[in-house]
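Aim 2, interim progress. The first record below pairs a target sequence with its structure tokens.
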Amino acid sequence: MVSGPVRSTLVERIISGRAREAGEGFPRQTSVPTSGMITLSSGTPDFPTPPHVIDAARRALDRNQTTYTPWAGLPELRQAIAQKLARENRITVDPESEILVTTGTQEALQVVCQTLLDPDDEILIHAPYYDEYRRDALIAGARLVPVPTRESENFAIDPEGLAALVTPRTKAIIVVSPSNPTGAVQPRSVLERVAALAAERDLVIVADELYERFVYDGQEHHSIASFPGLFERTITINGFSKCYSMTGFRIGYIAAPAELVRAMLPIKHSMTICAPSVSQWAALAALTGPQEWFAGVLAEYDRRRRMWTDALDAMGLTYGYPQGAYYVYVNVGSTGLTGAAFARRLREDHRVIIGSGGSIGSEWERYVRGSLAVPSETLREGLARVADAVARSRKAPV
């Protein structure tokens, strides 16, 4: 057993450099008691996994379908994913060679970064962003380059800002739509300009489409890989955690040109060999079973979205109008507090947990991230507590 000074030196060496930097911003456990707390920032959908998905997982267990599958995933599941992409996203893929089933979308992102990025490469992303992208780029030895968006423009990507930050080291652009944390849905006109930039500068596009079904007010999700000539340079990441409430199943997928999938396979294998077999059978049922139930879920999330915006308007807080996903990105600067300080005050004085801005950088220090994945009665009480915190913060000296 390693102990004493030797152990300390070993630990320091292990967490030095990129590993230490990648860990910055990672949520730390709080010692504040959680009894009576209301969480308004959860990334976990609060509707149940559809019964036919649970039944499929149960049948897989009953049939002892618990062994390794092919590295790329069950052939039946890859076929269903290909059919879904053709039907819903207008993306044509070969299920044999252009689909890779992963152990969740976070593994998918890690596989992509380890395959695509070399040390000192750069990858662009519109900010604010979910911090896992930065960590995965850093673990690969690369640098995530944020391209700021604006609240006044509903956090739409700025193609000119992207172009200005392309350097000889830039290898890819990450596009997240609908977005975590802003709820932005990127317009087709913006995505077309991003696509043109990628083609002009010979860049890869990594399209994270995990929240694709969560769109409101007639907004439309556009898959950039479906644009003419774009599939050849696009890696699409998607999964089942959000739309099917299957977070604990840990199941996602990558759709990409065959040569990229071939390069990803050994990296995927080194991480988890294959996605959990029971989860793959459940995912197959999710895609091939009934879909109508989701309309009710979306309607409820839309109702909660309006609860958020009505409450924030009454508080005098500004935000990017949430067009998709299930988040609200709220500017609390008018309270005189940073997002982190406001979140801390909410937690300690009002027993409400909410996330601070997410991205690293001064532009986002005044923001917090709210969630629609909260039961309505709980949300109503939580928003009342937030309103009280806002009022008290404006009255009290900081």
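The second target in this work package is listed in the same format:
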Amino acid sequence: MSAAFAADCAAYSAQWQAGAATLAALPARPARSAAEQATAARLLAEGRALRAAFLDAHAAALYRALTGDLTHFLRVRELVDAAALRVPGLVPAAADLAREATHRQADKDGLEIDQGMLLAHFLADPVCGRHLCHAMLLPRAESPALLAQLQRDGQVDLPTARVRRLGNATLVLTRNPRFLNAEDEATLDDFEIAVDLATLDPASSAAVLRGDVVAHPRYAGRHVFSAGINLTHLYHGRISLLWYLRRDLGPVNKIFRGLASPDAAPDEWRGTTAEKPWIAAVDAFAIGGGCQVLLACDYVLAARDAFMTLPARREGIIPGAANLRLPRFTGDRIARQLISYGRRLDCDSPEGRLICDEVVDPAGMDGAIMKVIDGLTNSGAVGLAGNRRALRVGAEPLDTFRAYMAVYAHEQALCHFSPQLIANLERHWRAQERTA
């Protein structure tokens, strides 16, 4: 540790903690006067300017200090928690986050923006960023024991995901029936664990991702792929900023890139990742995050009546890694229309087939899934993994993804707390009328 780094940690920390104490002494945002809100805005802006200066100078040194000079791995949440303890005030403390969590999104001060700034700086550094990507590609701590259960019983049931054997594949069924299989804080851990199990299952050569059956009156008894992010939870302040980064650095990137091991960096040319092809089976619709996941899969099978959207404009957020991946499928113009202008793509349309490999009648989905599994796996697993790596290294090497995620961490933090997000949710989703 350099003397300058140690001295700056102490000096900046004192200023941040003083500002945080003054902010905490103010009334909660909805109860502030105009003058009090102006004071809060000034404190936040001044603290953020100091954080940018500190991180510009010391982000790499801090990351190395937190990870024992890159000798151990910290996931996103562990990393920001460790930073809060190592340099108090750099990112919000647990008590500050707990206080913010009691408010609707519109009534928060946006303290989590500082977490986004921190992670953006870490990801922007090539060495530290690759190390963080490596950490997020490791299997979850819960996965080994559940993998043993899968091997013993042929199935694992998690609260919001089911893992099953299906011929020569492992099937992941995502479940959030009240919200049409939307994604939120309650589903993310189970989704990632299920991706781990399907990828590591030694008894299969492929993985299938499908939404489970829902009970919603309009779709009762039908499979639904995904309604994307739970917008009701987002409006009511129940989606954290870290949720986006944990999702796209974690399970979605694991589907695309495979699982890493602690002793080998996830380099395509070494073949160090454990991976298998992923088949997405799209029933009804793939909205928002659901559509994003399709771009990470190897084969997309869709029901003829299904559709896809990326309603980022109507939500006011960045649609995961879709800005990086979608133009490879549809070209730049259609990608911009989907992301910025709310265009809908029917799966059974010329534009929809740029993403969907095959479209079948809804009643024939089960049989079609089995045919795709057989078609993908009848030549052996080694060639499948090798061809995935060869395709990926030309389209999206890890360093390209790392650089994208640095921008994403910064910009999504600003979007997540922007007044436009709330206005969009109230205008297009009527979120103020919905209960979480």
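The first strand starts at residue 155 and ends at 158. This observation will shape the mutagenesis plan for the next reporting period.
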